UniProtKB/TrEMBL annotation, chain A:
Cofactors demanded by this protein: [4Fe-4S] cluster; [3Fe-4S] cluster; [2Fe-2S] cluster
Organism: Ohtaekwangia koreensis
GO terms of molecular function: 2 iron, 2 sulfur cluster binding; 4 iron, 4 sulfur cluster binding; electron transfer activity; metal ion binding; oxidoreductase activity
A family per Pfam: Fer2_3
Protein name: Succinate dehydrogenase / fumarate reductase iron-sulfur subunit
Organism placement in taxonomy: Bacteria, Pseudomonadati, Bacteroidota, Cytophagia, Cytophagales
InterPro entries xref list: 2Fe-2S_ferredoxin-like_sf, 2Fe2S_fd_BS, 4Fe4S_Fe-S-bd, Beta-grasp_dom_sf, Helical_ferredxn, SDH/FRD_Iron-Sulfur, Succ_DH/fum_Rdtase_Fe-S, Succ_DH/fum_Rdtase_N
Top-level taxon of the source organism: Bacteria
Biological processes annotated in GO: respiratory electron transport chain; tricarboxylic acid cycle
Amino acid sequence: MKITLKIWRQKNNATKGSFKTYQLDHVSPDMSFLEMLDVLNGDLISKGEESVAFDHDCREGICGACSLYINGRPHGPQQTTTCQLHMRSFQDGDSIVIEPWRAKAFPVIRDLVVDRAAFDRIQQSGGYVSVNTGGVPDGNEIPIPKKVADEAMDAAACIGCGACVAACKNASAMLFVSAKVSQLALLPQGKPERKERVERMVAQMDSEGFGACTNTGACEAECPKGISLTNIARMNREYFAASLSSYEIVSKGGGD
Amino acid sequence: MNWFTKLLTSTLGRKLFMALTGLFLILFLVIHLIGNLQLLKEDEGHAFNVYAKFMTSNPLIKTVSYVNYACIIIHVIWALLLTRKNYAARGVERYAVSKNSSPWTSRNMGILGTLILIFLVIHLQGFWYQMHWGGIPTKNYDGEDVKDLFATVDFAYTQPLWVIIYVVSMVALAFHLWHGFASAFQTLGVNHLKYNPVISFVGKAFAIIVPALFALIPIWMYLH
Amino acid sequence: MKLDSKIPEGPLAEKWTKHKFNLKLVNPSNKRKYDVIVVGTGLAGASAAASLAELGYNVKAFCFQDSPRRAHSIAAQGGINAAKNYQNDGDSVYRLFYDTIKGGDYRAREGNVHRLAEVSVNIIDQCVAQGVPFAREYGGLLANRSFGGAQVSRTFYARGQTGQQLLLGAYSALNRQISNGKVKMYTRTEMLDVVLVDGQAKGIVVRDLVTGKIEAHSAHAVLLCTGGYGNVFYLSTNAKGSNVTAAWRAHKKGALFGNPCYTQIHPTCIPVSGDHQSKLTLMSESLRNDGRVWVPKVAKPGLKAKDAASIPEADRDYFLERKYPSFGNLVPRDVASRNAKYMCDEGRGVGPTGLAVFLDFADAIKRDGRKTIEAKYGNLFDMYKQITGDNPYEVPMMIYPAVHYTMGGLWVDYNLMTSVPGLYALGEANFSDHGANRLGASALMQGLADGYFVIPYTIGDYLAGTSSAKISTDRPEFKEAIDKATSTINKLLSIKGKKTVDHLHRDLGHIMWEYCGMSRNAEGLKIAKGKIQALKAEFWENVNVLGGSNELNQELEKALRVADFIELGELMVDDALNRGESCGGHFREESQTPDGEAQRKDDEFAYVSAWEYKGEGQPEVLHKEELKFENVKLTQRSYK
């Protein structure tokens, strides 16, 4: 296969980027999309040009490192991660435009690599159950209906790749945040902190500069792990209920 | 920041107000439509004029109408605020190529809303302002002077431009509702596998039937 | 050097309990005076960092990925073992211990393995409390499955994403401590060296992968939780970034490397499709429950999956069923892998490269119906179709073995401390618990056991005897390490040769796979050693690394890692050559039974090989830690 690539090149966050066009003449349909980029990079290095930087790691669709906005869609034409996309999804002679995720909260580091630390900071703001190691009850002391466990698992399947933000016209992170909020709101283990959790995670999400949700459903349509919009509705419920009912108690400290 | 301002300024809170005001306006559309349908009665505007009088004088209705105005203003201002934030959230550099995997209506609520807003201005200036402060001749029904709004409306709908504006605006409204109706429920957190199909069906039916009936009135009156 | 494994005396079941009591404690109010560095944030690293921070230590955690959540633990599919005996099917701590020792072909320590089995039950409780959505039965209790040929159902799972869910659990615990200010997290930061002060590990040197800045960090103890080194083979099921650098640099600073030649090769991976191949994808082992493995009886070069149906039943060789009638397609990983290799060596392999065998579901679909098969393996079939373009409901799958896990790693004692005081290794990075072969669903168990339930106890014993005075990174030891790292980078950038890093890495992979892969012999290993040495020389003369050092430079990152892989490769070959027996994942052709099966030699090789680095160009020195078996009787595996 012959492929024409139009790739966003940007030295670093301080300099302006632009598209560069490359030609690849011997692309095998069995190559993964990232392997095609490996081949391109090998060619570039042989010609003395610097390789195209892109994020990737596990290359089996689970780590969430790979990104790439391919021909106007996050992770390309199929509902998988970029690393699971294969060149047989394209035609001989195709032109492919590759851009980084574009969002204010995901600044470009270099070429196609963006900084998704905002996602980590949102998780740090409350995406956990406050239990220390040790001293926890037996796993079977907390019975959880199968349906609830399955639904929590559906939400927990999020890989944190950021395709939802990339796909959303508002660069909203609602699907990502709501997946974690949902997982822990559904499970009994998450219930004690559910109000504070959703309030803190939403506040962090807003302060990172993500947009608001306008229920377009683009995130769900592009999510490689099929995370559902139901989670966003659940987070809305959780958030409004928390806003209306939560209050703070100032601890007096002391004791003995 | 107290909890209410926090709620009000968060993206979720703003969306909450969009949804609540939107749903109120949807409710208003129903009332408005019921009233407007009186235009179709062949009684030379009697029923309609009585209704118009009632709507501008009943204290309860008046209170509700103020809420309605507030809803329109909040809905518009919040939409502007959100749109600005959403636009900024994409960042300075925009995508060169973008294929959309979401419905057209959902992505263009702002444009549709703007069309509806322009229409509202024309509409309010044409009828509502006239009714309140304009010099509308009166008719006497059973000894009571009632402004003959029907005549104003009837005259307006003899002009093709007015009819076209109305019909086009109702199309915009239909598209706005096509997404907005179900979206409001989603924002409020009403999303349940059992009821989603119902909400979606009612929303789409509403988005077709209500604007269609609204649009029918000028067409019908124009043809008569 | 005298190796002291510090295994406590006393009856097996009481060793850990007694040891915990004997370990020194750090006073709660003193814990905040101690700094601990954790390198790597997979299951072992994230759980250790979180647990130590909860205790009150100040933790600095480092990962080369952009987020701790991306560590390769995330890719584990099958599950995690625990001796809960929830199924009332006869499981116990002792049985898990026994299965693990036996599965490891009697090349692991009894004491370590028993401890692992003991704490396995706590891990499940811990993960449940964190909100890990394990599979449940309709009654709401935890579900189990039997995995990897185990006789009991002791594997807990979260769909086919158990590793992901456990990692996200540990990540959430880590996040909580980051938010509490007890863990300072450094992402996109790669460790380049460990720093010793007076013979004790007191810090590390790292490179910020975004700015290229090289910095030193000091602490009172350093934990390496940096995973395995399967990528020495270039193609493996590991993530592209998985590397040996941290462990290797520690090795060069004095930490012994244990059993480097023990590699686990997984039989059911998607075969290589061409030279462009960058990694291999594992398909769950469970496929062998219903799929039948075969090749044509006579070589049919280039046979495609869609033409498989044209081979009549009589002309097919179901070689596993033929050779191992009682286990059939369910023989252990190493046996299945090796036999697939033999078929391909005979020229009977299928597919365009001839390096694949069929895994056929036609009979299972005929027997159980497509629906049943879809319910069991739907996801896997979809994944296979996505990658290969073939539909396994209609044509047989093609599979081939691939490197999956490395049992070898830094040598550690019972406290998980390497031979360098204050330097610990946890998870796959250490050599400890799996012997010569790892059981399915045991890697997750070991990573979390080390991080949650071992290191929080054992580290105190060391720190209690160490001064809590802050260590200045202005000390000459740090400066020296920074200078060394800087000069290595400058050297790599100045070579400007003709070959890309990937090219040289691929060459290394070919050598390792050919001579130090599924089946090894002395002659081949000697050839490999020569080839690796030549490759090393070529690397340092002819590698082409473009770009600068003060920026995100992915080629430079790879080059630094490959340089270490090459050196490790040579040590693996040395170790494989030394181990003149077949055991676990290590098959030496000179050591087989008359009918061609692996022959272990307990009288000669019942020891851990621990290699000591002696300097550039010097042969490494072998130390032997004798393995004593007081509780289990050593038996030869048989699957006939």
